[in-house]
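Usage

Read records sequentially. Each one opens with the input sequence:
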Amino acid sequence: MKKFILKRILISLVLLVFVTMIIYGIMRCMPTSFVENRARELATKPGSKSFDEWMVQLNAAYGLDVGVIQGYFAWAAKAVRGQFGDSWYWNQPVLQKFSSVIWYSFALSLASFMLEILIAIPAGIAAARKQYSMTDYVITVIALIGISLPSFFFATILKYIFSIKLGWFDLYGIVGRLHEQLSPARKILDMAKHMVLPVITLTIVSIGSLMRYTRTNMLEVLNSDYIRTARAKGLSESRVVNHHAFRNTLIPIVTLLGGTLPGLFSGAMITETLFQIPGIGYTSYQCVMQGDIPFVMFYMLFSAILILLGNLIADVLYAVVDPRVRVN
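and closes with the structure output:
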């Protein structure tokens, strides 16, 4: 098992190096650049230098005057020491800005992730147990709707109904206008209220695939020989499903859930942007639009690490629940 884990870690590190090289190259080719905008802004001031002179000076200041390969290794040397520089757009250290917004995304993603598991897995099992019944058809329709609905479309519908028509929730933001006048407990409730619609959006658009995946795997397990043997021994249907079938259904689901780890921390860019939740997703979107290379590089590196870590955890858990993986 140790050899298996060590091998997966080494593969992940090699992948991380190549991924960061590609990301850095893409960042250097971004059509929108803070440096260009800043140089253009400074060049318009009375008695200022020309645009080209400002570009030379700013590129040298931010290390953009060297080639991509040389620039990558210079960036990587600092990144290994935890030095990611200052955000051009927010005018503060990248790590400081990151730490101030990451927890909004984590709270949003964790709430939707828990609801997704609590809804999708039991619903998928119920659909498999009652195949071709009305319950199965209803769950299948709900799953297909969740898979098909774009998050921006569903979020717009929720805002139109519950914010514009009913007035139950604010259209945007994480706090209300009178947030600072509230007590600490009511401040938390105010923020939780602003999270309701984003959480519903993320949950609905996410449950469909997990619901269908659970149903498919449960049907496959229920048709296995050992399940027929368990039923022939006189075991109750609930024990056959919950004790024997469900444990084996979890084996492939572990891989799917392991891939959801990045979403807990990396944020939901579209949903956060639509609701203007100041999480890591919305913040990164603003940085991309402004050409803020230091922050976008850190965000992409952070996302890449989470994806590799999620795959590593899924592989390890898969090996724990299925010894054949370790042998092979």
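Summary fields computed downstream for this record:
- Strands lie at 86-87, 92-93.
- The two ends are 11 Å apart (CA to CA).
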